[in-house]
Amino acid sequence: MNLLKINSISKKFGVLQALNEVNISIKKNTFHGLIGPNGSGKSTLLKTIAGAHYADSGEIIFKNSNITNNSPELRSQKGLNLKFQITAILPQLTVYDNLLLALQTNHSIWELISSKSKYLYYEKIIEVLENFKLIKKVDTLAGELSHGLQQWLEIAMVVVKKPELLLLDEPTAGMSPQERQVTGELLVPLKSYCSLIIVEHDLDFIKDICDYITVLDQGKVLETGSIEKIRTSKKVQEVYTTRV
Ligand SMILES: Nc1ncnc2c1ncn2[C@@H]1O[C@H](COP(=O)(O)OP(=O)(O)OP(=O)(O)O)[C@@H](O)[C@H]1O
Ligand SMILES: [Mg+2]
Question: Which residue range is the domain that position 111 belongs to?
């Protein structure tokens, strides 16, 4: 069964056609890599799925319900969560409080860190910190973490919500090869309850963890299918040799 179905989504910024009638289907418990040259529309597509942008036309069906006009908050409540390309942790708060904030986005920061609700999600938070190798940093200020650990914290802030569809935009940007490999190992277990759409420039990383790949080029789907199909696609080779 399809978890997500994107039907002919288009999005313009002024005269620039960032997405041009994009169709994608995502099955339950599958990992999907989204690749393409710079400016091909990858981040715009993830933001449109998450509701950070609204499509000009087309529709987005999630778990058989039309979410095209739903707010980002409602999409998140329904189990669809995005980690943006740009880091969004709060550096002055501890690792624990960043996760708490991620779980209680409707409360103000002051309410959160002063109230009893601090321990409301204790077990959930500790579990995700253990899974993401951050447990020893629970009381560290997020701004004092290394870049790699900040990226893991940010992924943990999305994963703690137990999404059914997780959208990650370049989660390994700026990481060392070893951190990158560990990131893959951290993500793989999520497949038991979640599907993933991940944007990455590192094709080896994508090949290691993804079941399917979609290639975007100039806002259009150039090719979609298994790793093998994409690896041997003449169209993809042409774009990657002439434009990347
Ligand atoms: N908010 C915006 N306003 C105007 N133009 C935008 C906006 N966001 C994206 N664009 C433009 O839309 C096109 C697609 O951008 P997008 O960020 O989706 O590409 P991308 O595939 O994620 O690129 P990269 O690999 O560099 O991250 C680009 O030409 C970009 O300049
Ligand atoms: Mg991008």
Answer: 2-242
Q: 40 phi and psi, to 5 degrees?
A: -80, -10
* pTM for the full predicted model: 0.92
Annotate 10-23 with three-state secondary structure.
EEEECCEEEEEEEE
Helix/strand/coil (H, E, C) string of 201-226?
Answer: CCHHHHHHHCCEEEEEECCEEEEEEE
148 close to ligand 1 (CB < 6 Angstrom): no
Ligand 1 contact via 37 beta carbon (within 6 Å): no
- Confidence label for 145 from pLDDT (cuts 50, 70 and 90): very high
Residue minimizing CA distance to atom 3 of ligand 1: 13
Provide the 10 A C-beta neighbour count for residue 189: 10
Q: How many domains, the chain?
A: 1
Cα-to-centroid distance, 229 and ligand 1 (Å): 26
Give the CATH number, domain containing residue 41.
3.40.50.300
- Which amino acid residue places its CA nearest to atom 18 of ligand 1? 41
